[in-house]
Structures are given as structure tokens and as C-alpha cells.
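ok trying this again, last paste got cut off
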Amino acid sequence: MEEKYKQQPSNCIKIVLFGPESTGKTTLSKALAKHYHSVWVPEYAREYLQDKWNKERKICEPKDLLPIAEGQMKLENELAKETDTVLFCDTNLLETKVYSEAYYLGECDPILEKYALENTYDLYFLTYIDTPWKADDLRDKPEQRVEMFKMFQDTLIKYDKSFVLLKGDKKARLETAIGHIDELLRKRSEHVIR
């Protein structure tokens, strides 16, 4: 049953936009996918939790995390089949793990934690909090942006994930990201030629 939280094999480079709420991950995911004529994986939790809020006026509960993880991996695995170059993930299970620990006293479901650590990505872009915070039905920590950013950064360091910090306006972030992705693509093509 746990297979539904696992990445399926694919030939694409996988990039994760990683960071706290309202830091431009979706905007950048879409822009990068457009630049590379590729696809991006939306954040399943937003759809799931917005639907829950609209129907029940309830926010995320621990019991929602595995269905969110399952939906996220289903989307990622389906969309990974649509490209053999670069897949841009607006989030991943490691991000869900960070939120679980932030909201539920350091707790994380063992299944979620297992796949958050086992699923692999080529590069993480850690989005900084120098973007304006925008309220919506789901966002709720405008006063804790520094603490939340630190949790995301500490997680990448703790688990030795390769990451690049993205700061500045949309143009600066996009240019920085493109430079790093182009380097990954160059290394990949050199490896294939050999």
C-alpha cells in the first residue's frame, strides 16, 4: 500500500521549489516550466485543503497529511511521464514533513517521513521570505516567517539535500534558477555523450 507515496522511475531532472508559504514557489514553478517548455507539478495540498475549508470550514489536521502525500505523489508520478528534460515540483513530501512538524509539535507520520526522505530530487530551490506575504484562506503564519524559513533551511541541511537559496525579485530568482538548471542539463548531456 505504501507504494503510492513512492516516486516512480523517470528520466527527467527533478527540481523542487521549497520554502514557507507565500514565497513565490508557484509563480517560479510556472515560469521555469514555461522557459524550459516542460511541466510543473502543482501543490496538491492547496486544492485538498481549500476544498476542505470550503465544505467544512476546517483547517488541516494530522489525518489529512497522508491523503495529501498520496495526492502529491500521484500528480508528480503522472506529470513526470510528460517530460524527459526537467520536472518542476511546486512542493514535495519533505515540505509536507516540515509543515507537519511545525504544526503538530514536532510530529510526523512515520510513513510520510519515510518517503519524504527516500524520494530523491536533483536540486532544491529554497525560496526566501523577501516576497510580500499574501493572505488567503489557508495561509496563517505571517508573523512567523523567519522561524518557518529557518525550519525549511535546517531541514535541507540536516538531510544533506543539494539546494540553492533564491532571493530577490521574480527576475533575479528566475535568472539564478535558470543558471543552475542549465548547469545540470549541461552535466547530464556530457554524461550521456561519454
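PB: full thing came through this time. The radius of gyration is 16 Å.
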